[in-house]
Amino acid sequence: MVLNIKNRKIYMYLLLTSLIIFTNFLLYRLPSLQPISSEVVLGSIIDFLLVIPILTYFLIIRKKYSLKYLGLALLAGYGVAYFIIPSNHMQQYSFVPYVVAFSEGLLFLLELYILYKIVIQFPKLRKEYKRLSSENSFFQYNLKKTLDIHLPKNRLLYVFLSELSVFYYSLFCWRKKVNVPNGISFTYHKKTSVIAVYVMLIHATVIESIGLHYLLHHWNEIIAYILLFFNIYGVLYFIGEIQAARLTPYLLDDQKLYLQTGLSKSMEIPLENIKELKYFDGPEKFSKQELKTMYDARVVDFMVEKPMFDLLLKEEQTLSLMYGIKRKANRVVLNVDEPQKFLNEIQARLTNTEK
């Protein structure tokens, strides 16, 4: 089987990091290699705090994700080092936690700089956001449009937008209702099990958090609280996905079709760029080549069914993913709760556009 470039990079990354971790593990566990010199310990620290983060950047993060994830890679490397290198050896290099804290501090300052840029532009951002909110109640869409107008081409701001969207949808919109004074909205989640899927994931994460936190707390409090933090964030993300699916139906007006699937995927399609909308008549599974140029707008479900509609585009359109990641797509497959109404409204507007 021929692997594409993306998969080769992932396999290379997993192979190299596994090799580093395994060899270092053997280094401190085989009696024949004892005693370990301080220079060898320093080499292990460099492996975990420098080599692994560099591999993570070049093989995983670069051109795809925010530099914020480099900080997570550094923390993960330090965590692995803490487990593998015996404490009596780590004590020789007491400065290591400070290096990690300093690096994380630099990333924190970078986020503060982003916040500063938002603050100085806040009056303009607020005015533009309120104007867009009068047209619809889609928080993520309106905020993204606001940033595109006043703070364009800033990748870090879109990372901030993704994080803000998670907390907004999970914590602050429980009483919100869909409001679309200009256009027609189409729900896409009511006839699926998407809510049940995320409720199940929330339930599993909470149970795992309680059990693992109790076990890890007796062994290492720091690791226990780090894992607890990520599990809490995971629960908030799952709740945000439920709320986003409920509050951001597909939006159709006289100029565009806006599709947002939960928190993670969205596309704004000008009506003049729609080549054809038809009922889907293809196979249930898509090839890897098809998935590269397709926006699968279906939500997660227990039983993945064939899409209802196949929407073909005249030209490639930008598909927006979380954390500012973008790619191109020339085809969209999707489901809606009212398929016939959706088809009729799209065709009617396409007819008017052609006239």
From TrEMBL:
Keyword Transmembrane helix: yes
Keyword vocabulary terms for this entry: Membrane, Transmembrane, Transmembrane helix
Sequence intervals crossing the membrane: 12-28, 40-60, 67-85, 97-116, 195-216, 222-240
The organism's place on the tree of life at top rank: Bacteria
Signal peptide residue numbers: none
Name recorded for this polypeptide: Beta-carotene 15,15'-monooxygenase
